[in-house]
Amino acid sequence: MSVELQNSKSERVFKNLQFISFANLLTISRLVITPFLIYTILKDYYLISGILVAAAVLSDWLDGIIARKTNDVTKHGELLDPAVDKIFTISVLVAFVEKHLISTFVVFLIVLREMMVTWFRSVMVNRGVVVPASFYGKLKTTFQLIAIFLLSINVKEAGVILLWLSIIIAYYSAFDYLKLFIKRKAWE
Q1: Alpha-carbon gap, residue 79 to 100, rounded angstroms
Q2: Rounded-to-integer distance, Cα 7 and Cα 92, Å
Q3: Tell me, what DSSP letter sits at residue 101?
Q4: Which of 80, 55, 63 has the alpha carbon at shortest distance from 22?
Q5: Contact criterion met (CB below 8 Å) for 144 and 161
């Protein structure tokens, strides 16, 4: 391959990367972190696991702030962020199941709730109903991430308790979404 052709391809790749906002790069960083985090959890590298969870949580917190501050909120980012959050959370929880820190039933409850709420919100958005994240949904996420951090550094009892608390809050918030879904007659 000629040098010109290689340079041309490199320039196109670089130009395409320029279209990815910094906020979306932060979101994507959680996808990159996830397999390394799973590995460190499975190998009992607690310090590294804790650092990786903290980095993922920080990137989740910063991506939205940066997108809003730079006026760079995009449809891609609005879809990418929750998808990456779910991939991150479910993947890490499955690693905890493999380590026998939590049960498969816990993961089932979390995945069920996430899929139900995603469906409610998607149907309502398609009907033109804006569905912002609820306070309880944010509280659920906070407890869930703290639980993931604690479990990743091998603080089992407190991590499991917070994870169950996050599940209770998650279903309470799902009920709020269901009430809005019914009130707006979104199924019609």
Answers
A1: 32
A2: 39
A3: S
A4: 63
A5: no
Report the C-alpha gap between 161 and 175 in whole angstroms: 22
> Each residue of 93-144: pLDDT tens digit?
999 999 999 999 999 999 999 999 989 888 888 888 878 878 999 999 999 9
Distance CA 22, CA 14 (A): 14
Dist CA 67 CA 26 (whole Å): 10
| pLDDT digits 0-9 by tens, 159-177 | 999 999 999 999 999 998 8
Are 98 and 42 within 8 A, CB to CB? yes
pTM value? 0.85
In order of 2, 127, 147, 188, the CA distances from 143 in angstroms are 54, 31, 6, 35
pLDDT digits (tens, 9 = 90+) for 21-62: 888 899 999 999 999 999 999 999 999 999 999 999 999 999
DSSP state of 20: S
